Amino acid sequence: MKVFDVAVVGATGLVGRKMIQVLEERKFPVGKLRPLATARSVGKTVEFNGKRIHVEELTQNSFQGIEIALFSAGASVSKEFAPHAVNAGALVIDNSSAFRMVDGIPLVVPEVNAKEIFHHKGIIANPNCSTIQMCVALKPLHDKWKIRRVVVSTYQSVTGAGQKGVNQLYAEIEEEDSYEKKFPHPIAYNVLPHIDVFADDGYTREEHKMVFETKKIFGDETIKISPTCVRVPAVGGHSESVNVEFEKHFELEEVFETLHHAPGVIVQDDLKQNIYPMPIWAHEKDDVFVGRIRRDESTKNGLNLWVVSDNLRKGAATNAVQIAEVWITHK
After folding, report:
1. Tens of pLDDT along 71-107?
2. CB within 8 A of 289, min separation 6: which ones?
3. Could you tell me the residue range of the domain that residue 170 belongs to?
4. Are residues 119 and 141 in the same domain?
5. For position 52, which CATH number holds?
6. From 84, 120, 142, 238, active-site residue
7. I need a surface site. Which of 112, 122, 134, 141 has the fewest CB within 10 A?
8. Chain segment 30-53, per-residue pLDDT in tens
9. Longest dimension (CA), the chain
10. Domain containing 268 — which CATH number?
11. Which of 84, 129, 142, 283 is catalytic?
């Protein structure tokens, strides 16, 4: 079997470490793993396939011999170093927002638009975590009944804000006196309707991502999307309340059947047994869980869904590795 030398940029962060974990779990054919991070992380190690590998400093020359470079170190790092990786001959799969809306750069969720992987020019963008899980759940429904409008409210884990977000939650729960704040208000026992920065229109950048990225992934600019993104004191994954209006009439039984057979989707919907998706069940799993499936009686062709997924895995690391898997299969 052919093996591929892989670099992970941002290897000591939450997503970077999860990328390395997923590469190992899915038995990705890694020849050599090169973990890369900033100078302050040099000397740290990561574990891969039973070995401790030293983290190297990220430089312009870090990508010699690398065939796949998984980036998860923020947009500014990706903009600076991804071109160097491409020039060295690597395929870049970038988890930041740097390239998602750039014309000519594929924005890919493999269950939805895997064919776009083969239109890349060196860089493939990984979508936003909340966008990924919504698209996995909605695309098979869109294909059958054509989505007219989506109203989505998210309940997003502190892990989406990185290690500092997790640290703030635990510090507040433990009532520690001093800690580094990631959020503008307490997150323990609280809910913040504020993820990323606010734009002039009153929406946050996270909310804009869900609108623009979904349209690009679906290849459909006609879908209307109204999001509200909220941070909650959970750690297992992101949850979404999704209200959909279709152009065509649907039967609820068909919706269940479609979702049961949709790639990457697991239906958890047994109300008599109190079974519905929750972050504690989605944690460390790669699927998108869908439940509370019910008709919206207030509008024609309306449907309500509850969608949950581990944002560090399917919402980031796993989706990136899946892109690489498709690429090597056809290479």
Report:
1. 999 999 999 999 999 999 999 999 999 999 999 999 9
2. 265, 266, 267, 268, 277, 281, 282, 307, 308, 309
3. 130-310
4. no
5. 3.40.50.720
6. 238
7. 122
8. 999 999 999 999 989 999 999 999
9. 60
10. 3.30.360.10
11. 129
Q: What is the pLDDT of residue 1?
A: 82
CA–CA dist 309, 136 (Å, integer): 10
Decide if 135 is catalytic: no
Q: How far is CA 125 from the centre of its chain?
A: 11
Quick one: 41 and 75 in the same domain? yes
186 and 211 share one domain: yes
d(CA 220, CA 135): 12
- Do 157 and 100 reside in the same domain of the chain? no
10 Å CB burial of residue 202 (0-12, 13-18, 19+) is exposed
My answer on whether 180 and 262 are in the same domain is: yes
Q: Could you tell me if 174 and 279 lie in one domain?
A: yes
Q: Are residues 38 and 91 in the same domain?
A: yes
Q: At what angle do helices 129-145 and 252-260 cross, to 10 degrees?
A: 130
Per the annotation, the verdict on 229 as an active-site residue is no
Are 229 and 296 in the same domain? yes
How many domains, the chain?
Answer: 2
Sequence-distant (6+) residues with CB within 8 A of 115 are none
